[in-house]
Structures are given as C-alpha cells and as structure tokens.
C-alpha cells in the first residue's frame, strides 16, 4: 500500500507535510506514538488517514467542546458522515442513541470527563477500536495537575492488554511534559517525532513599562495604527471587557472573550473573528485552541503568561499562513508577582485536606465542601483526585510542590523579559531544542523593526472592518447561508 495514493484518494493531496508520513507509518505498524508538530502542520491527518486504512473506529480524546465540534464540522464538510462528538452538547436522548450506535462511527470525539462515564466505558470495551488519539496531549501535564485531573485518569481507562496503539499529539512539550504524557497514558516502546518548535515567521517583541496603565495606553495607540487581525491576551476577565471597550471607542472592530461568557456568545464571537467581521479579540487564555484562522498577524500579551508552554501555544496562533507575524510581550514592574498569585490562588490548601478527612470521618460526602462554600469546584476536583492517590500528608506535600512549580514557571517566563540575548534562542532552548537559524528581525534583543513585519492601517483596511452592527450581522448570516 502506497500512503501517497491513500493521501490523494481521501484528502486530495499529493505530498505529506514534514513529519506526517513518519508518524502515520509508525501508527500503522501498531506503535504507540508521540508527535510534536507545530500549529498548522496538519496533526489531524495523522489519525484521519490511518482511520481510512484501518476502517475501524478511531477514538479521539479532545480537550474542548468547541474544538471537537469544529473538527467534526470540518470532517463533515469533506463528506465524512461517520463522525460524531460525544459530549455535553447532546441531550439525554441524543447521548443514549449516540452511545448505542457508537460502533457504527469511523471517528469518535470525546472529552476525558465523558470517557470516564461507566456507560461509555462499557460500550467502548465492547468495540474493536483501531486507534486511540489524545489530541492536545500537553493538557495531560498542564491541565491535569491544575484543574482537570480526569486527564490523569485517561491511562487507567484505556490500559487494556489488547488495546490499540495510542497516538498523542501536541504542538509543544518540554521533556517533563513528554514524560508525563508517556507515563500517564501508560504508553509502551513509544516512537517520538519531535519537530522544531521554532516558527521563523513569528517575530518576537517585548516592551517594558513603568506602570500597568502605560501598557493600556500603548496598546490603544499601537492597535489603532497597525493592521490586524490580532489577539490580545490578558489574565483578567474584567480587563478583556474594559480594553475591548476602549478599542471599540477608538474605531477598532473588537470583542472581549473569556470563560465566564455564555458558550453561544463565545462561539458567535469566535466565528466573527474567523470570518473577518472582527479584527481584534481581547481574551483570556480561554480563547485560541481550535481557532483555525490562518492570517492572524499579531499576538500581544498584556499580562505575563503563566508558563513558557502557554506562551508558545498562544503566539503559535499567529502566522499560520506562513506570512510574517508579530508577537509582543508587555511587562510592567510587579507583573510576575501578580502572575504567581493568579497561578496558585485557586489551589487547595492544607486546611482543605483536613476538612476533606473530617467529612470522610463523619461519613459525609466530601463534595459537600463545594456546596458549603469551603472550596471552589475546580480546587475540589484537584483535591479529590490526590486524596484518592496519596495519604493526607502526601497530598499536602504534592500541593506544596505544585504551587512551587507554578511559581518557578512564572520565573522562567521572566527570563524572556530579563534576557539581553536572543529571545528566540531562549524559547527554543526551553523546549530542549537548538536554534538552527535566526530570521531577519528575529526578536527585540537581536534587533527588530515592527514596520518590517506588520502593515500600518490604511483606509482600505479600516473600511473593511468599520461596519455597523446591522451590516456585521447581515454579513455573518449571509456568509453562513
């Protein structure tokens, strides 16, 4: 069987992108595979093509509902009817029907939380899967320890003697994250394909300010003078609203986006950004994964990212078309302390461990801690996981260790702010790789001229985004009809 023929038959391409063929060949041999391929390198093909070769169901464990739905919609557009997303968007009747017919689908998208449900496991155990895919596998390490411990349980569910091969996909991962992926998924004799994390077309800027308010003034001035599309990342939900409001007042087609918004509102805003009705998004890190927009020209970090992996993931949303793009990291004194506080603010503390033990001793459900206002739902999920893994003192040590790790991660990002040497080299080195070449206008430390990378706003670009709300709705509806 010639893979290029299968590629052409089902996808219409004549050649593979770098890394795709090596990954697919290993999967077809039955090997467990970890593949690190940069955003836009076609990771989904690495499980879609084997799905057609095996002609048996492929299970894809995916982190976000919107990401799942986007992938399902894309596959349906390419005439693949045997694809489904098993998630909380389904009502009870739809969920029962989907589970009952699961064996009839070729591609099954599912969340880690849904995977752990008993009725889902029972059905999957009765099926012959050809491949298990963990998409955005870095979430096992980044999210599993923080707020979605069900990620750490995936391996327990799928670890059967006769299980199919596992394919773990991500754009970026450190050696530690690679180790977490392999360990928690219980992978064996793993083939690893590691593509360079460097994206030469993304040029790295940084700006230092005396006060945080100065950053806001600079962004208003910068965004109103330069062309997007662009994303501004900030850690505060309220700041997404206030900054997007100021940009709107300045004539920029812009919207806020954060996890506290209604899911339909978020989906609507995301679609507006993708189709070009909105030029800028001001968002928390809830925005980005699964957003397939090729021509993002700028990514600005108003706040210090919580770790280097998040920073790399977020700037990687720029320049997916291969054209020059700009990523600017803004810093004001004290930003690192704020980032550390936000990073550990919702972690369980020793008192929560003692309270959990107390509930158990009284034969009460520890989950009552949430309803009694003692702990947030997110913190309880983390606490509950570790209380089932370790003795109480071990849990306290684990939580302390996790907090220190979060603070160290912020210090590592500060290394980009403090360095006088190449930012790109430092970033690539963090992921255990060596920088081969520096592009022109490489970074702030090597020398960079923003005007060489991004265009100044002109009358044409302004006119294309300055539609009133009626025109914007009409454009969106007609575009989707």
UniProtKB/TrEMBL annotation:
Q: Where is the Helicase C-terminal domain?
A: 215-370
EC number per UniProt: 3.6.4.12
Which CDD domains does this entry report, sorted A to Z?
DEXHc_RecQ
This chain belongs to which protein, by name?
ATP-dependent DNA helicase RecQ
Q: What is the lineage of its organism?
A: Bacteria, Bacillati, Bacillota, Bacilli, Bacillales
Q: Which Pfam families match?
A: DEAD, Helicase_C
Q: Do you know which InterPro entries this protein is assigned to?
A: DEAD/DEAH_box_helicase_dom (IPR011545), DNA/RNA_helicase_DEAH_CS (IPR002464), DNA_helicase_ATP-dep_RecQ (IPR004589), Helicase_ATP-bd (IPR014001), Helicase_C-like (IPR001650), P-loop_NTPase (IPR027417)
Q: Top EC class per UniProt? A: hydrolase
UniProt cross-references to PANTHER family, sorted A to Z: ATP-DEPENDENT DNA HELICASE RECS-RELATED, DNA HELICASE RECQ FAMILY MEMBER
Keyword Metal-binding annotated: no
Q: Where is the Helicase ATP-binding domain?
A: 24-191
Keyword ATP-binding assigned to the entry: answer is yes
Q: Which NCBIfam families match?
A: recQ_fam (TIGR00614)
One annotated GO molecular function is: hydrolase activity
Question: Which keywords does the record carry?
Answer: ATP-binding, DNA-binding, Helicase, Hydrolase, Nucleotide-binding
Superkingdom of this protein's organism: Bacteria
């Amino acid at each position: 069987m010639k893979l290029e023929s299968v590629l052409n038959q089902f996808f219409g391409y004549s050649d593979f992108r770098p890394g795709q063929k090596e990954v697919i060949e290993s999967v077809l041999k039955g090997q467990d595979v970890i593949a690190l391929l940069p955003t836009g390198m076609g990771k989904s093909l690495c499980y879609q093509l084997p799905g057609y070769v095996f002609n048996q169901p492929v299970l894809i464990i995916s982190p976000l509902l919107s990401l799942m739905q986007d992938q399902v919609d894309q596959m349906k557009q390419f005439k693949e009817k045997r694809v489904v997303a098993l998630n909380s968007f389904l009502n009870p009747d739809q969920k029962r029907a989907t589970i009952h017919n699961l064996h009839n689908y070729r591609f099954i998208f599912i969340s880690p939380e849904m995977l752990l449900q008993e009725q889902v496991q029972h059905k999957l155990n009765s099926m012959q899967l050809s491949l298990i895919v963990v998409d955005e596998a870095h979430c096992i390490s980044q999210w599993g320890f923080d707020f979605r411990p069900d990620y750490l349980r995936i391996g327990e569910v799928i670890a059967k003697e006769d299980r199919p091969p596992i394919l773990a996909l991500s754009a970026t991962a450190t050696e530690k994250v690679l180790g977490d992926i392999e360990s928690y998924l219980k992978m064996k004799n793993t083939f690893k394909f590691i593509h360079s994390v460097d994206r030469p077309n993304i040029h790295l800027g940084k700006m230092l300010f005396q006060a945080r308010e100065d950053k806001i003034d600079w962004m208003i001035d910068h965004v109103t003078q330069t062309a997007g599309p662009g994303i501004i990342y900030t850690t505060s939900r309220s700041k997404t609203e206030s900054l997007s409001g100021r940009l709107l007042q300045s004539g920029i087609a812009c919207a806020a986006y954060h996890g506290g918004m209604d899911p339909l509102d978020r989906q609507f805003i995301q679609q507006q950004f993708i189709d070009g009705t909105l030029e800028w998004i001001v968002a928390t890190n809830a925005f980005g994964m699964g957003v397939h927009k090729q021509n993002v020209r700028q990514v600005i970090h108003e706040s210090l990212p919580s770790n280097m992996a998040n920073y790399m993931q977020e700037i990687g949303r720029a320049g997916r078309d291969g054209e020059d793009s700009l990523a600017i990291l803004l810093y004001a004194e004290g930003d690192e302390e704020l980032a550390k506080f936000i990073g550990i603010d919702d972690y369980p503390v020793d008192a929560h461990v003692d309270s959990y033990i107390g509930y158990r001793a009284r034969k009460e459900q520890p989950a009552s801690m949430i309803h009694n206002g003692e702990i947030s739902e997110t913190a309880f999920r983390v606490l509950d996981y570790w209380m089932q893994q370790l003795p109480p003192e071990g849990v306290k040590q684990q939580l302390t260790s996790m907090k220190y790790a979060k603070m160290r991660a912020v210090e590592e990002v500060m290394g980009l702010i403090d360095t006088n040497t190449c930012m790109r080299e430092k970033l690539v080195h963090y992921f255990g790789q060596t920088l081969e070449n520096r592009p022109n206008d490489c970074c702030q430390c090597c020398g960079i001229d923003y005007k060489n990378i991004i265009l100044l706003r002109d009358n044409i670009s302004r006119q294309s985004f300055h539609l009133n709300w009626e025109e914007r709705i009409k454009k969106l509806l007609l575009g989707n009809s």
